[in-house]
Write a structure and sequence with these properties.
- The protein has 180 residues and is mainly alpha-helical.
- Among the domains are: 80 residues, 2-Layer Sandwich (GMP Synthetase, Chain A, domain 3); 33 residues, no CATH class.
- The protein contains 9 helices and 3 strands; from the N terminus they run H-H-H-E-E-H-H-E-H-H-H-H.
- It has a 3-stranded mixed sheet.
- Strand 1 and strand 2 form a beta hairpin.
- It starts with 5 loop residues before the first helix and ends with a helix.
Amino acid sequence: MSLQSVNNILGVLKQQAKWQQHPFQHLLELWPDIVGKVAAKHTRPLSIQRDILQVATSSAAWAQNMTFGRTTLLLKLNQNLSEPLVDIRFSTKDWQPRPDYLHPETVIPQSHPSYLGKITRSRSQVKPTLQSANTAFESWAKTMQARSQGLPLCPQCQAPTPPGELQRWQVCCVCATKQF
């Protein structure tokens, strides 16, 4: 009897079919990459039965949208799976939201680079009367001019720019998007 190392024994066991990763487990790992992060939040593979993938969706709209792209998904999945799928079925029937979706990330306005602080308006500035389009635009333009007084200028376009934008991008948000 020869003694074999543990690594050799584990290597032989991994090669045996019963020790390989189950196809559904592999599919779960691939799912976000195949469908995309947004779709992965609204869909969840449930099972594979008779080579048909059952997927739960968060709404009927997601089920319909995913059904339209079913053939493309099948091609992508079958390229990565050891056992090919015949079809995919989408349904809202078994959808249950995950706990991490119950608390979506909230954006705090103060953390945005364009935040200028709380703007207070006196009662005399708020006029709930009907205005023509030109009057409303003139009123809006005056308000914007008053808000932009004292703001630093963008080095590229010379537009008044919130200081947070200049700190983050060294230019205003419009010029920053042009760079990308």
